[in-house]
Design brief:
The protein is an alpha/beta fold and 424 residues long. It is built from eleven helices and 19 strands. The strands form four sheets. It has an eight-stranded mixed sheet with strand order 6-5-14-15-16-13-18-17, sandwiched between helices.
Length: 424
């Protein structure tokens, strides 16, 4: 059966950003309304993580999916014009990542209509997605469902859960993240690898205190990197994060520091990031931040298998890479490209649609993976000489990568020409 023969039944495993966005994108793209069921492992809507940076292209797709309107209605997030990179010891600004299109446009953002970036708590983004999904009568979200097996044949796909229940559909999308259960059915040998680096993050209140940076700062240090950013419209709070080497982790899902652990985390962060240029104020930010959350960063080996006969992986389930400021945007690109391919070529069988999607996405993902890995390596501990080299090379790298970065901010995958994707 092809998507055009009836209202397709689609199962999505994973009720996070990629899964909920997939439900919205398929509903938006298909002329014949798909019947979508989203199965989420957790018992209630929840997410581990701090505040994510939504790039202009990510904002564009959220706008198209009706999610941006929910974010605005709730007054979530803080507009980000740029990310400023400072040297730890000297406090000098060494580079700036621009989201306003100051050099190529009017400074109002990228694309038409123009969008800048937005820093938003991951939990708030998830809430906005759920609100948008809740308005779709064709989408059902079910919590507390742990997948244990997947069976495919030429007629469809069936997923079975730990509680003994099962569900069948025409197509299954695995959107269940880095530790994907669905990937284990597609390619059991491809497992996440701990990067040796963890993100330690939390939130603090600064009141009316003026910061050295306008929106977001990244401080380049010998022992990791430090980030702070506004994330809510009053601009009286900061999201604070340290990217540090950590040889061992307590939980692959992340954990919240308590009691003595909280004290140990603060001591570790002070050792790594304290004592820098006074104007940066990092000691004060670290001291005022409570409830540190530690999140180990895993990644998948590059390449890998994304599809089977009736099953496709999207987002981190397919290609988890080290966080590099555009991860949510890449996942949303996946979602929008797949929805467009599935709708415009709905007369084709699902395996052909999957192959066409993969043909469109492999190059983009491989390129993003290489750049993310390069950036991530710069967060590892190093000596004075290597740190000096990093600070010298950073502005050149930002300049060199700006053309491709700005092009991605301008892009709308809805404009992709799909005529040559399928071979007659």
């Amino acid at each position: 059966m092809t998507p055009s023969e009836s209202n397709p039944r689609i199962i999505i495993v994973g009720g996070g950003i990629a899964g909920l966005a997939s439900a919205l994108a398929l509903t938006r793209s298909f002329q014949c309304t798909p019947q979508v069921t989203v199965f989420e492992l957790r018992e209630t809507p929840s997410t581990i993580g701090g505040a994510v940076n939504l790039t202009p292209n990510a904002i564009r797709y959220l706008d198209q999916l009706g999610v941006l309107a929910k974010i605005k209605a709730k007054n979530y997030g803080a507009t980000i014009d740029d990310i400023e990179i400072f040297a730890h010891a000297s406090g000098a600004r060494i580079a700036t990542l621009d989201f306003t299109n100051a050099s190529g446009g009017k400074g109002t953002g990228f694309g038409n209509p123009p969008f800048k970036a937005l820093r938003i708590r991951r939990a708030d983004l998830l809430e906005a997605l759920l609100l948008a999904v809740g308005e779709k009568s064709n989408v059902k979200v079910v919590f507390g469902k742990k997948a244990v097996s997947v069976d495919e044949n030429t007629e469809g796909v069936t997923i079975r859960f730990e509680d003994g229940s099962a569900s069948s559909a025409d197509c299954l999308l695995g959107c269940d993240g880095i530790h994907s259960a669905i990937r284990a059915f597609i390619e059991p040998t491809r497992k996440p690898v701990y990067s040796g680096i963890a993100v330690i993050n939390g939130f603090t209140t600064i009141g009316s205190k003026a910061m050295l940076w306008k929106d977001t700062v990244v401080v380049s240090c010998k022992q990791g990197s430090f980030m702070a950013s506004y994330f809510e419209p009053s601009r009286k709070k900061q999201y604070v994060a340290g990217v540090v080497e950590m040889p061992e982790v307590r939980s692959k899902e992340g954990w919240r520091a308590k009691g003595r652990d909280q004290e140990a985390v603060e001591v570790n962060l002070r050792r790594r990031f304290g004592g820098g240029a006074p104007a940066l104020g990092l000691d004060e930010l670290i001291a005022s931040t409570q409830d540190w959350l530690l999140y180990p960063v895993y990644k998948l080996p590059p390449g890998g298998q994304w599809t089977r006969q009736r099953t496709l992986l999207l987002g981190d389930a397919a290609h988890a890479m080290p966080p590099q400021g555009e991860s949510v945007g890449i996942a949303l690109e996946d979602v929008m490209v797949f929805a467009k391919v599935a709708n415009e070529h709905k007369s084709h069988a699902w395996p052909e649609i999957f192959a066409a999607y993969e043909k469109l996405r492999r190059g983009r993902i491989d390129s993003a993976y290489k750049e993310a890995s390069f950036r991530w390596d710069t967060a590892k501990d190093c000596g004075w000489l290597k740190q000096s080299m990093k600070e010298w090379l950073t502005p050149w790298f930002v300049w060199w990568s700006s053309k491709s970065r700005h092009a991605s901010f301008e892009e709308d995958v809805g404009d992709l020409d799909l005529e040559e994707v399928f071979v007659p």
